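User: I would dearly like some help making sense of a protein record. This is the protein in question:
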Amino acid sequence: MFKILKIIVDEEKCIGCGDCKEICPKGGKIWKISNNIAHASNLQYCHVCTICAMACKQDAILVERNG
């Protein structure tokens, strides 16, 4: 069974502060900040710890995974 993982950033809420990138154990590989918006890519490095979503003061990050 394959893990399906999505990290959804609400661009209306995100202010590009970079807290998600700073707190993530693999932040440099997963997170990019451009145009004041956080973008998650290279999700094969993601541990699905959801620390990024918990750290987001704007409540702009949703981590979706299958059961």
